Amino acid sequence: ETGVTQTPRHLVMGMTNKKSLKCEQHLGHNAMYWYKQSAKKPLELMFVYNFKEQTENNSVPSRFSPECPNSSHLFLHLHTLQPEDSALYLCASSQGDSGRGQETQYFGPGTRLLVL
Amino acid sequence: GDSVTQMEGPVTLSEEACLTINCTYTATGYPSLFWYVQYPGEGLQLLLKATKADDKGSNKGFEATYRKETTSFHLEKGSVQVSDSAVYFCALRIQGAQKLVFGQGTRLTINP
Question: Considering only CB atoms, which chain A residues are within 8 Å of B94?
Answer without folding.
Answer: 101
